Amino acid sequence: xxxxxxxxxxxxIIPLVASFCMPVLARWKKEFCAPLATLTTGIVFILTLVIxxxxxxxxxISYSVAGWDPPWGIEIVVDSLSSIMIILISGISMLxxxxxxxxxxxxxxxxxxxxxxxxxxxxxxGMIGLVISNxxxxxxxxxxxTGISACALVAAKGTRxxxxxxxxxxxxxxxGSGFILFGIGFIYMITGHLNxxxxxxxxxxxxxxxxxxxxxxLSFFVVGFGVKAALFPLHLWLPDAHSSAPSPSSAVLSxxxxxxxxxxxxxxxxxxxxxxxxxETFIRHLIIVLAVIAMxxxxxxxxxQIELKRRLAYSTVAQIGYVFLGIGLGTPWGLAAxxxxxxxxxxxxxxxxxxxxxxxxKTGRKHVNEFTGMGYLMPITMGAFTVAAFSMxxxxxxxxFISKYGLALGSLEANLPLLILAxxxxxxxxxxxxxxxIGQAYFSQEEESENGHGxxxxxxxxxxxxxxxxxxxxxxxIIYLGIFPGTVLHFINQTVTALL
Amino acid sequence: xxxxxxxxxFPYFVSIILFSMGxxxxxxxxxxxxxxxxxxxxxTSIFLFFIAVxxxxxxxxxxxxxxxxxxxxxxxxxxxxxLTGIVVSFSVTAFALALIVKLYIYYGTISAPNFMKLK
Lengths: 500, 119
Fold this sequence. Notes:
Chain A has 500 residues and is mainly α. Chain A has helices spanning 2-28, 33-55, 80-107, 113-132, 136-155, 160-191, 196-206, 211-229, 238-244, 247-280, 283-304, 308-329, 332-363, 374-377, 379-393, 399-413, 418-443, 465-483, 486-499, and strands at 61-64, 75-78.
């Protein structure tokens, strides 16, 4: 028991230490950086599996850092939500790092490779820490670690566009974390505690004395986490940052970094503030309205883009809308669907961005109208792309269907049946911008004469195995989540019963 | 409102005003260096807020003295937290300035409207 309790702490420390070894290692032997980073992430992945195996028996792990018990010390709590999130974070990061082996050599200058892995591992350790930390000031520090290293991941490419996007991201993200820190200040002023459980106890006692202050605090958190997680009117940094970053960075930013902020928000909203404040204030109405606008307008903006990575980035804005919709509904199915969508979307967006990177690597094509014959040129990559796109639209047997179905059930539970219309409309919009790409890739009649025989043949993808394998694994993961969602739903149901 | 109440809560008012000013500067100023200065004003206002929360009127430094067990101490925790906050603010500033230098090399200007357009 005692050893297991220490493991979550090691999950944060191991990547942190490894990240600071990278620049030194890069000066000595540059080619060792990538394997060492992957190995580190692999070790963390195994540790998270051990932790989850322990947590699924129903006992959350609680550990006081440096032996100082809460409320004074920093407490680490791994419940079922955190345990599945750390598996997701370390697993997806490991796949992306394997993909980076060759992709990074292609996309980045040789001199920054070591620093790229530093930023990646720092970001990983920040994300894992943010998910398992139970102390809100500690959360703020980890938010900043994640945020700054995510900006570094964007800026690593060093081109004009990516530098610009990184600066925009940095400025807006700092405003966001400023709002979060001010909110933390308010909470500390009201309750005198920083530990989430103690805040919850104290707030339940004193919340009637400070109604306006609690409103203010909640709105500061919504704005702060809204900027960080790109909730619709605050998403302005996202399309630039995610489209101009190198493909592995885009994948990790889009699938993991924006999600961990939602998890942190979820913990503060449902555990620290509690359900009564959530239902009394009108915060859920605000979240639902913003989420519906995000779902529709995000999809619309994605439809207008012609650059593939920008289209994927705007699609992320729409998908964040789904997650926030589930949180705003606040019903068992709504929350479960939101968490499931966080997981499924992590797989889908990783797959799509890695495919986009692989296509740009092989053919240099970056625009959505250049995909003619791609289904024959790179059948495995395009097949994975198709799986992820179908899942994005919400076709049965793919992961996205389960979470959208859950969202529909959730809106029925919350007695808001009109929201189903918004979900269907957004899914149709998803179809309008993904299906033309797929149709062009497989069924386009142009350029047939180039092949000589008038009939195109399938050929094996001409990309390195280190790029192909992660894409295939992620695509299989989407299908697995679509057909056997039971294991994941078991974790999620445990969380939902704990939260509601 | 009571004048005495305003005077007593003076730091809170100042920090709210500074916070709004800082946010406004970041969002509206075209000059990138001024944007960074805005970020610094914003974060400094939060530091002021935390220090004001921890302050106790007539409190003494929080070093335990066995001769006066009932003495009123200032709460040290917010000040300590803000040390971390200052480090974070420092690193954000350093990173932003580095990016601005790079943008200056690309564009020859540090005025945002020339390139930071919405797409």
